[in-house]
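sry for the spam today, last one i promise. struct tokens for design, 216 residues
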């Protein structure tokens, strides 16, 4: 028997909040447990890289459940979103963020998470899904923003989509600039902020939205 709309929305929101908490705890605890780790200059994936002392633990108990929680959030929240052109494609694009977290746990990056040079097949897969995460989230948020803007129920959340898309786009662009390599970790965290901020905003809207009603 299908769960009532209000219950589904509540569970979706809780999954989203769980994803945010897991991502935050994984990054902070993993960084604290690794001597010399820099949140400014190093990628989050480096916490789970091959050879890292706690790499397997961070990947299995941090990255994987974070990605699963994100995908559950999207799957459960999707029926509450407007049935507008671009919604399904926007969700498919944004799902890259959740998929990338799961893949990062399975295809742990090489030391330093290199983007070029002599990299392993595992690293190549890791990099490909990293692009899917940020490019997908950027495009997905733009599509969802356009769909939300045409819906009376979700119109107030459209601006959040565009704002978060800006964070993801700016952070990802900075990550690709060689001159900003010393702050690539900070750039990545700006992009991650865009992803998880949107999840949090939508999660709150789902909790405050009566069954069949409008987010307030």
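last one done:
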């Amino acid at each position: 028997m299908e769960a009532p709309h209000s219950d589904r929305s509540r569970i979706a929101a809780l999954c989203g909040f769980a994803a945010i908490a897991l991502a935050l705890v994984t990054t902070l605890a993993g960084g604290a447990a690794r001597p010399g780790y820099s949140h400014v200059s190093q990628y989050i994936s480096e916490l789970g890289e091959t050879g890292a002392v706690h790499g397997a633990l961070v990947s299995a108990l941090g990255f994987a459940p974070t990605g699963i929680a994100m995908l559950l959030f999207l799957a459960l929240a999707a029926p509450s979103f407007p049935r507008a052109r671009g919604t399904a494609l926007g969700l498919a694009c944004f799902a890259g963020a959740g998929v990338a977290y799961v893949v990062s746990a399975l295809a742990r990056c090489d030391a330093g998470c290199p983007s070029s040079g002599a990299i392993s097949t595992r690293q190549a897969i890791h990099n490909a899904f990293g692009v899917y995460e940020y490019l997908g989230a950027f495009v997905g948020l733009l599509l969802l923003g356009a769909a939300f803007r045409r819906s009376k129920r979700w119109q107030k959340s459209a601006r959040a989509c565009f704002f978060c898309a800006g964070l993801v786009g700016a952070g990802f662009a900075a990550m690709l600039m060689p001159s900003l390599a010393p702050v690539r970790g900070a750039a990545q965290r700006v992009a991650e902020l865009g992803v998880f901020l949107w999840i949090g905003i939508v999660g709150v809207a789902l909790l405050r939205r009566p069954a069949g009603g409008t987010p307030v």
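The radius of gyration is 17 Å. ok im logging off now
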